[in-house]
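Amino acid chain:
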Amino acid sequence: MRVGKRSICGIMAGILFMMEPVSGYGMMREGTWKKDIRNQIMEIQQMQPELTPYTGPEITAPSAILMEASTGTVICEKNADEPRNPASVTKIMTLILIFDALDKGSLKMDDTVTTSAHAKSMGGSQVFLEEGEIQTVETLIKCIVIASGNDASVAMAEFIGGDEGTFVKMMNERAKGLGMEHTKFIDCCGLTDSPEHVTTARDIALMSRELITKYPQITNYTTIWMENITHVTKGTKEFGLSNTNKLLKMATNFEVTGLKTGSTSIAKYCLSATAKKDGVELIAAIMAAPDYKARFKDAVTLLNYGFGNCRLYKDETPPELPKLSVTGGKEPEVELSYGETFTYLGLHGEDSSGVERELMLEESAKAPVKAGDQLGTLHYRFNGEEIGNIPVIADRDVDPAGFSDYVKWMMGWWRMRGEEV
């Protein structure tokens, strides 16, 4: 548990004034003794990390964060870097790796997966897969997303990684690549009670953002309330999946899109909630809420706060770009394009109609020009202050002109001169 600077300093000050120095040598050294204690207090002050003051709405969870998805802007946070057990919210990273494999083409939705004895043995939330049971990748995704099936998670981990341990290493590597600095996964489903299996509210938001922005099709599954799967090992038997994310059925003034719940006796009640409203998409990560109702209430509180204050400016129609002249190139001009779409998140309900744009381009480019070379900048200002910019880049390559190109131009010039005469 973190202790604030003031609390530690108060304790040390109490020690300083309550303790009586002993007679003799102690009395002679009293001034030095007090000076040493003061020096220790100053050292402790320097060692303690600065805690970001929480400025958001009142919530019961000890750790949480609210992030805008498209920009990654943090709207408010509460002890967002405290490592805690995430329980089944772990499965967000498992899903990222599944969709990574689908994206690469090494995995297909209709591929079949055979359940191992290890996968079947998983306790906690499960869909009761039998050893040797065969299900498609898409069915197992539904089992993970809707019912939080630990057995389905392990089955997919083994199918992709060969074994769960290898898959967990892949999870940790992926987390590192996303900048999840305080995360370490021990298993693929969050069932473990290992004290080393930890993440933070900030890291949950980071992996949630990766999943919903890189693979928006995940909402085709995270918004399913109920669905049946069919067990086929011991005859044919239907099994009902019911979504653990009760936000989907709660009355809200925004569209709930996901994402993942988690709870164990160690982790308490966790949630990564995603929602949309008026073109803004938010992520609310809740950790260690005291009960299952509190995590949903806290998420709604944060999401309402975010949607009430945030305005997203997205420039869908930037200024039209001219062609830029190229000196010494095989072609006299190069087409330009914008390197990205500009977005800006206002946190105080700002009216984005006052945003001003200024396009600044190089006078010309010198060959060789490579596609992607920056040749200008589009600046954005609001109330006189720059709020961001995007690069203007070359749309294609322009190679340097060679001897034959100059000969061709000269012949063309003489031909034109002859026609004039």
The first strand starts at residue 63 and ends at 68. The chain is about 35% helix and 25% strand. The CA atoms of residues 254 and 277 lie 5 Å apart.
